[in-house]
Design goal:
The protein has helices at 38-42, 48-53, 75-92, 101-104, 111-132, 159-178, 201-222, 246-255, 268-273, 278-288, 314-326, 348-375, 377-385, 392-399, 403-413, 424-432; strands at 32-33, 36-37, 44-47, 96-100, 135-140, 183-186, 192-193, 227-230, 240-241, 262-267, 291-295, 335-337. The chain is of the alpha/beta class.
Length: 435
């Protein structure tokens, strides 16, 4: 045990009326909803990077957090960081965590030393996972922080950077498999461009497609049974990133014949940056058959960048989980809190309570979503809106009739269709019953 969290107790469910601080008021992992325990529905994961590696900086200022493992970039500090991380996982009762390689190991003086550091930390983390029961939702490679990635990783104009990135992905996939990870994520933090004046779009897209194909091939080579995930993001830091949103990524997958091999990890904050709602991106992914996992956070709607705040809106979260439950729920995916404290929230208890509050919000949202599905009112009203397409002549028109036939039908029957209400306010009022 470390002394970082002091005497903070392990959190437990007490109910919504509790006045205690370190408790869950809405998240009871054993509560059964739609035939499954809440823990199995939500599959919560803690993000190693924001919780233990992020120093509290922003675009205008540096470190504000004073963590004991920040003093030196060494294996000793990496092990201390892991000790604190798994203490927090136990305090929260979080079933999963997620990590980048750079979160858990220090950079070495050579590629070989860096990989050796990663392998050593994987050996250190494995027994901790076994003793705490914490599992790995997904692993990934940090291919964006170091200056070598300033022009991208897979899309970099320098083939040596492509090679370095591919080798790092290989090592991270090995680490993910060794720890029993249920997914592997590819996040193109700098796969994009600042100006077309020095960019070959065709070449960079081909490089990205080849890298992803190599990842899929390696998955099958090593027998990794998890899911390969891509995380869409539209902008920030580059002016235009290739994995802009769900539809863009799906087009990319179709272009390279990988739509049946890869699913998506969708983040609320990224959806907002793309000009979409979170539920839109989730519904689009479900419609296309590529919904995999989610990063649950929120953006400040008054800021034009990715603020990665913990969720606090039950209605927003409920609409997101409605789309997830309607699609059948998570399989290998889950709810990762890709969220960070505000840089003025300095204390260890802030880290615990931010996650506890977010888990309560998600539990309330999922239960509201489940109640909406069980009621069936939204789907009934949706079905009524499209009921005309169930008629045999409408089906025939869509499937078989050419434009001449349709023209003759409209002319002979003197069709004069009148608009019908979309009933948006009625539907919004209906949803308010549950949230």
């Amino acid at each position: 045990m470390t002394s970082f969290f002091g005497d903070i107790p392990k959190l437990r469910f007490t109910g919504p009326q509790s006045e205690e601080t370190f408790v869950y008021r809405h998240y009871d992992p054993d509560e059964v909803v739609l035939g499954k325990r809440l823990e199995e529905h939500l599959r919560f994961a803690v993000a190693y990077w924001h919780s233990f590696a992020w120093p509290g900086g922003d675009p205008f200022g540096g470190q504000t957090f004073d963590r004991p493992w920040f003093d030196a970039d060494s294996m000793e500090m990496a092990r201390l960081k892991a000790d604190v991380a798994f203490e927090m996982f136990e305090l929260l009762g979080a079933p999963y965590f997620c990590f980048h390689d750079a979160d858990v190991r220090p950079e070495g003086d050579s590629f070989g030393e860096t990989i050796a550091n990663l392998e050593s930390m994987i050996d250190y983390i494995g027994p901790k996972m076994e003793s705490t029961g914490t599992k790995l939702l997904w692993g990934t490679a940090n291919l964006f922080s170091h200056r070598r990635f300033m022009a991208g990783a897979a899309t970099n104009p320098d083939p040596d950077v492509f090679a370095w990135s591919a080798a790092t992905i290989k090592a991270c996939m090995d680490a993910t498999q060794k720890l029993g990870g249920e997914n592997y994520v590819l996040w193109g933090g700098r796969e994009g461009y600042e100006t077309l004046l020095n960019t070959d779009l065709t070449r960079e897209a081909e490089q990205a497609g080849r890298m992803l194909a190599k990842v899929v091939d390696y998955k099958h080579k090593i027998g990794f049974e998890g899911t390969i995930l891509i995380e869409p993001k539209p902008q920030e830091p580059t002016k235009h990133q290739y994995d802009y949103d769900v539809a863009t990524v799906y087009g990319f997958l179709k272009r390279f014949g990988l739509e049946n091999e890869v699913k998506l990890n969708i983040e609320q904050g990224h959806a907002i940056l793309a000009g979409h709602s979170f539920e839109h991106e989730l519904a689009m992914a479900a419609s296309l058959g590529v919904l995999g996992s989610i990063d649950m956070n929120r953006n400040d709607y008054q800021s034009g960048w990715d603020t990665d705040q913990f969720p606090n809106s039950v209605p927003e979260v409920a609409l997101a989980y409605y789309e997830i439950l309607k699609a059948g729920g998570f399989t290998t995916g889950g709810t990762n809190f890709d969220a960070k404290l505000r840089r003025q929230s300095l204390d260890p208890q802030d880290l615990i309570l931010a996650h506890a509050g977010a888990m309560d919000i998600c539990a309330r949202g999922l239960k509201a979503a489940a109640a909406m599905l069980e009621d069936g009112g939204l789907e009934t009203m949706r079905a009524e809106r499209y009921a005309g397409w169930d008629a045999s002549d409408a089906k025939a028109m869509l499937a078989d009739d050419d434009l001449d036939t349709i023209f003759a039908h409209v002319a002979s029957n003197d069709l004069r269709p009148e608009p019908r209400s979309g009933r948006q306010e009625v539907l919004e009022n209906w949803i308010s019953r549950f949230v």
